[in-house]
Amino acid sequence: MLDRSCIEAIDPLLEILDGKWTLPLLLELFVGTRRFGELRRRLHPISPKTLTDRLRVLEDKGIITRTLYPGVPLHVEYELTERGWKLQPIFAAMWTWVQEDDLNANKKNQL
């Protein structure tokens, strides 16, 4: 059973994940390192401002790193940190939960 201290302890995580584009953004980064333009195309119709805001929050929280490569053209790559990779089992558990819930719902509908 969860107690109040557990709920309070996960509040910072929920704040990080709270945002329309944060989960899809993290899922893209679980695949591998991405450039800003790649993320924008894959998350269409996200606005550049929203994408920038989400990336900054994740970087500030130590979930992703931002690497700037000088040159012409200048480009930036984003990738998960070790802390960010630790979120993957949480996503996997949520996926399993959804799949089991969908399976149970389908069984009930067939009865």
UniProtKB/TrEMBL annotation:
Pfam families: HxlR (PF01638). InterPro entries: HTH_HxlR, WH-like_DNA-bd_sf, WH_DNA-bd_sf. It comes from Paenibacillus anseongense. The keyword Transcription regulation applies. Keywords: DNA-binding, Transcription, Transcription regulation. PANTHER family: HTH-TYPE TRANSCRIPTIONAL REGULATOR YODB, TRANSCRIPTIONAL REGULATOR, MARR FAMILY. Residues 6-106 form the HTH hxlR-type domain. It comes from the Bacteria. This is Transcriptional regulator. Signal peptide: none annotated.
